Amino acid sequence: MYYLGVVVTGVGVLFLCLGGIGLFRFPDVYNRVQAGTKCTTLGAFATIIGVGIMEPTWFWKTLIIALFILATNPISSHSLGRAAYKSGTELAEGSVVDMASEFEEYSEE
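^ thats the sequence. predicted structure below, dont judge the formating
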């Protein structure tokens, strides 16, 4: 079981590294939030569960922590993206469609 935990933790660390690279590579805040959310959610989840697999006495604690991250990380990223949009942060030059502008007339200010 220990080696399975090492592999799961390694996959999590790989995803965390890819998320960090995405933060530097992507052109605007919206793409960066997406990279940060997807990679860090899966990366942190896998890393924490891997530690729980390596240390079986910690498994239930790490599972609760991982589920908390799985529930809160996408919500916080959505809030960051919405705040950036509401404050008028521009899309990257290569962006083609602004789908959120369709819903502006329905949103409450």
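The radius of gyration is 17 Å.
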